[in-house]
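Cont'd.
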Amino acid sequence: METASGKSVHGSVAFDNEKKMSLDGGEEAVLVELNKDNLLGRAKAKITEAREQNLRLKQLLSQLEKDYQSLQKHFYEIFEQEQESKTLSRKTETASEDSDQQELLCLCLGRSSSEPNNIRKKSNILVNGVGDDMKTNGSSLSLGVDCKIETASKPTTKNPSSEDIVEDNKGAKLTPEILPPSKILKTKEVQGDEVSRDTQTKKPRVSVKARVQTPMMNDGCQWRKYGQKIAKGNPCPRAYYRCTVSPTCPVRKQVQRCSEDLTILITTYEGTHNHPLSLSATAMASTTSAAVSMLQSCPSTSSRQGQVTSVFSPSPIGGLLNFSHFQDTSQHQFYLPNSSMSTSASTSHPAVTLDFTAPTINTIHFDNCSNTTPPGHFSTYLNFSSPYSPSLEHN
DNA sequence: CGAATTTGACCTGCGC
DNA sequence: GCGCAGGTCAAATTCG
């Protein structure tokens, strides 16, 4: 039975056949046209999508910049308030305490806090001399060199601060000849000064323990590997790196995985940068330098070999720590968020360990500071693995 | 091809 | 003085 539908079916088949016939003639050209239209449409859609995404990213970036600037501004405000109150309280102190005041070390983000405006001016002078990209920052980000200017302007003190000792190491870079660190050390030894040789040759070290999945902690500096060794008692090799930001920079670091927990990376810094640092590098350098300074300004700790002293002093300002526990009156102030800190003076090198692996403050062990029991908590974290972030992230 | 990394040799300090 | 371990050097190798 041939119905209308049957006819129509036949008819459609016939149409298809006709179409096929026609395709046989210019088939390829039509297909190419169709494909072109298709591709064009897809490409347009992709471009539109990419544009939208680009817009979103731009907005996100500008938002991030705004947040960062406001945070920076806020930080300055708090910082200056702190300094004003300190200055007022210190004005009442005697002249003898002034010498101690000179030893005040403030290393927050590499900006000296004792006289922020003056230091900024000084740092500008310095930066202009160096000619680094830090010019654009408008603020001092060069911790070590700031300190140097400060020390250079100072007369010699009976009890040199730790900064002085650190800067003594850097003093080698001021020699006309450009020498590698090892040569510098030898030169200094030849020059003598038996008394201070120990403190100069045995550079203080700062170890940073952090949970880092990457092979190396991103601390904002450029490093060049110059050696690797298998240390006794640890199957993981220890890598030796040298700072390559400046050819004369004496800073070295050792990187080693913790044998007990392979996720923990132990980075040991030695020396002080003699060049301006990036923002992210400055945060780390400030913390480590301050830790070294603290260690060196505590002769009692250094004299007791092998003794470990853990320190923790919470501050009302999120993550800003005031170290004022030592026998001298100097105060050390720097960011050390959510971490524990221990100092030790072995026979070879005085060392400070900053332990960022502790998830909460409750896990921190206090050996020698029963008076400074830390009831508080911090909301700040150091993010070493972030390639961009200025290391200090406020939640 | 230059820069960075690897790796064995060498140096130095320290304990016995 | 000797051996060990940590640290550095520098030639060889790899990488971009």
